[in-house]
Specification:
Blueprint (H helix, E strand, L loop, with lengths): L14 H7 L12 E6 L16 H18 L3 E4 L9 H11 L3 E8 L9 E5 L13 H5 L1 H19 L3 E6 L3 H4 L5 E8 L3 H8 L1 H18 L15 H9 L18 H11 L20 H6 L23 H9 L19 H11 L25 H9 L19 H15 L1
Parallel strand pairs: 1-2, 1-3, 3-6, 4-5
Antiparallel strand pairs: 4-6
Helix pairs in contact: 2-8, 5-8, 9-15, 10-12, 13-14
């Protein structure tokens, strides 16, 4: 949706256009999912020492290299935090991972415990249902709990089945590398170096290869290598996003979609320009409206005023280098988008859900719904007399938009990219 590659497709619901597009390389085409493989310990930190003398850092690196090779064979892009016997702090591992813009983080370890009879595989992940107050997690990892838990489950199941290991379960954990990142993250404890049988398995090159295969298959079960927009995996709006992307209406940001990021005014204008015929440009010398454009609502919603004829270039915070300049210019000239009294257009500022609803109602020429005073309101948080109540009610009745819950619309909250995609998807479906 953000960076445009080539000319946007107009009238995307036209069947001929959709058929033709099937043959073209589309913006947002699937790119290989990227995995960070982290071999635990290294250098002056040997990790656990096995009952057979095996050092954990050596086992971890070998399984990690095998895992990397298998993942590359299966079509993934892979980077390793270390590919030699070097020491890295935990923070260095997480910082490295953040710089990779990867999709998953998988740390490889071998376990050790004082009781030699304990054996088997387990997978650690951060779970916000079991927080440890002295080890707070990053906000991203807190929100990614369901994804990390599912990744942990799939990798563990695949590992124990493939390698015939005892299943010790997935384990909520506050270890740094699964707690401080910003992508789904797990730490695999392959087997126990403190157990003679497990230590013998870990000493076997063949068994390490089998373990790597099990881990690779678990990763693939969670995230196939060529999934489109991997960050929409499991997202409620994924189907709508993929449909719109195939129709050329929305684009990703790099290979991701960033579904829960706030939609900016520029992004919204670009989308509207693709699905609606904007009104013809206002003639020069138009009136400057009623001078009350001091609200965000007024700034996106009122009919074109004195700014319109000059276009987007009239605003001091927009220049022709802005990625959406052409769409912004068209929207300003059409009177669909207005600036603020301080001479700014604020193209990168988020739009609220009420602003989106209001503008959409208008461009779709959907009749406003007049709500009689004292009548039942569709949403409890939109009071009588709210500036966009008729617009929100109209979109709700058309089935194009939902509340955040059955009773709440949250009109003043910024709209996310996923929410805007859902709205457009329903609108297009209703026109077929
Ligand atoms: Zn370890």
């Amino acid at each position: 949706m953000v960076r445009k590659k080539g000319k946007p497709l107009r009238k995307p619901w036209m069947r001929t256009a959709i058929l033709a597009l099937g043959l073209l390389v589309l913006p947002g085409q699937a790119m290989a999912a990227k995995i960070v493989v982290d071999a635990g310990h290294g250098g002056r930190d040997p990790g656990a020492i096995g009952v057979n003398g095996l050092q954990e850092k050596t086992v971890n690196l070998d399984i990690s290299r095998k895992l990397r090779d298998l993942l590359i064979q299966r079509g993934y892009e892979v980077t390793m935090t270390r590919d030699s016997d070097v020491y890295l702090t935990l923070k260095e591992r997480v910082d490295f991972t953040k710089a990779q813009h990867a999709d998953l983080f998988v740390s490889i370890h071998a376990n050790s415990i004082s009781s030699p009879g304990t054996r088997g595989a387990m997978v650690l992940y951060y779970d916000d249902a079991y927080p440890q107050s002295s080890y707070p997690a990053s906000p991203e990892m807190r929100a990614l709990t369901p994804q990390s838990r599912e990744l942990a489950t799939k990798v563990l199941n695949s590992l124990v089945q493939t390698a015939g290991l005892e299943n010790r379960g997935i384990v909520p954990s506050a270890v740094y590398v699964v707690r401080m990142g910003n992508i789904p993250s797990i730490l695999v404890e392959t087997a126990f170096l403190s157990n003679p049988e497990d230590a013998a398995l870990l000493a076997s090159n063949q068994m390490r290869q089998i373990m790597a295969q099990g881990i690779a298959s678990g990763i693939e079960a969670y995230l196939p290598p060529n999934i489109q927009f991997p960050d929409t995996r499991g997202h409620w709006a994924r189907e709508a996003i993929l449909r719109l992307n195939a129709q050329g209406v929305v684009e990703g940001v790099g290979k991701n979609f960033e579904p829960d990021r706030m939609l900016t005014r520029a992004e919204w204008m670009t989308l509207l320009g693709r699905i609606f015929d904007l009104p013809a440009a206002k003639p020069a010398g138009g009136a400057c409206g009623d001078g009350s454009k001091d609200t965000v609502a007024g700034a996106v919603y009122r009919d074109g005023g004195c700014d319109a004829a000059q276009g987007a270039a009239a605003f001091r915070d927009v220049n022709a280098g802005h990625w959406a300049f052409a769409d912004l210019d068209r929207a300003v000239k059409a009177g669909v988008l207005e600036g603020y009294p301080d001479g700014t257009l604020r193209p990168d500022q988020p739009v609220t859900r009420a602003e989106v609803a209001a503008l959409f109602q208008r461009l779709a020429k959907l009749p406003l719904i007049e709500l009689a005073p004292g009548s039942q309101r569709p949403f409890k948080d939109i009071p009588a007399g709210y500036w966009a109540e008729g617009e929100v009610a109209a979109l709700k009745q058309a089935g194009w938009i939902d509340g955040v819950t059955a009773e709440r619309f949250e009109p003043e909250r910024s709209m996310t990219r996923a929410e805007s995609a859902a709205l457009i998807d329903r609108y297009i479906a209703s026109r077929k």
